[in-house]
Structures are given as structure tokens and as C-alpha cells.
Amino acid sequence: MLFPLPGKPETPKTLNLVFVHQPGKHSHDDIQAISSRILAIAPEIKIFGVLPTHGPDSIPDEDWRRPTLTVSFGRVRDFIPRRGPVYENRFVPKLEQFRRLRAAGVDTPHTAPYRQGMELDPGQWGPFVIMKPSDRELTSTGTHLQVFRTRSLSGRILPEDHASRKAPMLLQQWIDSGENMTCYRCLTLFGAVLYGSVSRSTDPRPELESPDEMIETMRAESDRGNNLACNDPDLMAFAARMAEAFPRHPILGCDIIREAGTGRFYAIEVNAGGNVWHFSSQRTAPWRTHDNNEKLKRYFSSFDVAAEVLARKTRTEAS
């Protein structure tokens, strides 16, 4: 057991909140910091930390008598709680994301599996499409992204050495975010936004009237690691709507594009597997600095918001 954190001795414990700690996805220190805040506003909650390799007997029998809520930023695996609801992050395929977002009324680009030679209707796809891998390992690296003019790709058979011959691909309507490609990311916890950021390419994209050869070789994403805080209320409200489509996932990395000219937001995807806690994840360690991280948390009161959300969720749903 990693903790519980003690509360005030005079405060009787009536509820349990269990964190299933995911090493590499977030630090133990972050969970400790949020837990301390929870205990300050909800001293009736007893907080436990376990690993996915722990069994439910890592928590004493007498503690299981209280209503319990379990939260995990990844699969709970071996930790099967004896009672109460469980919220855990799991991978959601992009086509399933598309269906869920559309069903929830959230604007998202048209998406479908790519097939060699498939016919594309510009009325459905728009003037440009982007091809991307459907494999979750490849999508996380940002490789094999390619933009095409819709009419040029329609009915076309791509060369034998093209990436689409080696891995399953998806097509998605391409949303123009302006001359310098721009993407937004919001981290949500049960729909509450813990921070928003924006990344923007330093090099402008080609003019959209450029020949197909230039369109198909242009960079297809914004600059990774070059993020600035973005506290846009409309952006954060849009991210909260995205999260409503995935109610069983505690945290989500919501990737959003704002269309140039219209200002309309589009949900590109959610990162649902849980590896998005970039306050302390291994993924962002190469370009994360302590000072910028602390500024981000203070600017958005991220851990205070997280504590309030988790305390409310425990009080309303523990059983």
C-alpha cells in the first residue's frame, strides 16, 4: 500500500477513495499533493493508494465496510475492489471515439478507415483530408501523418512503399487551423479542465492552392513540446463537452483544433488510455521543466480543482 494519508484524528471516516497508482503515468508526489487537498476539504474521506498489481486484500477488511470509490488513470488490472464504482482509463479506438463524439453532438471531423482506391466525396470530406495510423502506438508518435487534397486522393492507388501499405490507416477531414498549424490540448478530470495549452508550428504551411506535391509533403501537425498555457473559456467548455462522451474515463487528453476563419472548435481525438498526466508523466519529461510545471499548476489551480472534483465524486457516488 502506498498510503493512506491520515486525516484529522477527531474526524470519523465515512467514505473511501482509492487511487490505483500507475507508475510512469504520474508521480506518487502528485497523488499525495492532491490527497492532502482532499483531506482539507473533505476530512470524512479516507484515501488509499494501491498498485495495479495489488489485490483488494491490500486494504483491511474493516475499511471495506465503508462506501468506496476507485479511480485509476489506467487499467486497474489485479486490483478488483470489493465494492463501489470503478473509474479507469482504457484505450478507445479512433472510430469508436468518432461515433461517441458525434452521438454526443460534439463537432468532430468525418473519419473512416482508409482503403486503397476508395472514392471520396468532397461534399462529405471537405477539400482536404489527413491520413493517420489507427495503431495506438504509431498515433502517439505523430508519425505517418499526411495531408491530401480530397479530389487527388479519391480513387488513387498509393505506391507499394507508402505507409498505408504497412499499417491500417484512417482518413479524417482536415481542418485548417491557419497558416501556422495550431492545436489545443485540455486535460480533463471527470469533465473539469485542469489545464489548457496551445502548440503552434513556427513554419507556415504551404498555400492551400499549392500543387498536390507540396500539400502531400507539408508538415501535418503543430510543434510538439512547444506548448503555452491557454485559458480560453470557450475552449475549456468545449473540452468539457468532449469528456461527457467518455463518462467512465477519469482523465482525458482532449486534442482540439479551431478552424481558421470560422473560429469553430473541432474535437480531433481524446487520449483515453491515461498517459496524459503531463504534470509528471514520463512522456513529457524530456521537455518539462520544474518552473514551468509549477507555473502551470498555479495558473489553473490544477490540483485544487482536482481535489474538489474527486471529493465531490466520492461524496456523490461512493457505495
Shape: elongated
Residue runs with pLDDT of under 50 for 5 or more positions: none
The structure class reads alpha+beta
Q: Report the mean per-residue pLDDT as an integer.
A: 93
Q: Major beta sheet, specifics?
A: 5 strands, mixed
Helix content: 25-40%
Beginning-to-end CA distance, first to last residue: 22 Å
Q: Radius of gyration over alpha carbons?
A: 22 Å
Brief summary of the model shown:
The protein is α+β, with helices and mostly antiparallel strands and 319 residues long.
Question: How would you sum up this structure, described in words?
Answer:
This protein is 25% helix and 24% strand. It is built from 9 helices and 14 strands. It has helices spanning 28-41, 94-103, 122-125, 136-139, 150-153, 212-217, 233-244, 290-300, 302-317; strands spanning 3-5, 15-20, 45-50, 68-72, 86-88, 111-113, 128-133, 146-149, 169-173, 182-189, 192-200, 227-229, 251-258, 265-271. Strand 13 (251-258) and strand 14 form a beta hairpin. Helix 1 crosses helix 9 (302-317). The longest helix is centred in the last third of the chain and has 16 residues, at 302-317. The model has no long low-confidence stretch (mean pLDDT 93).
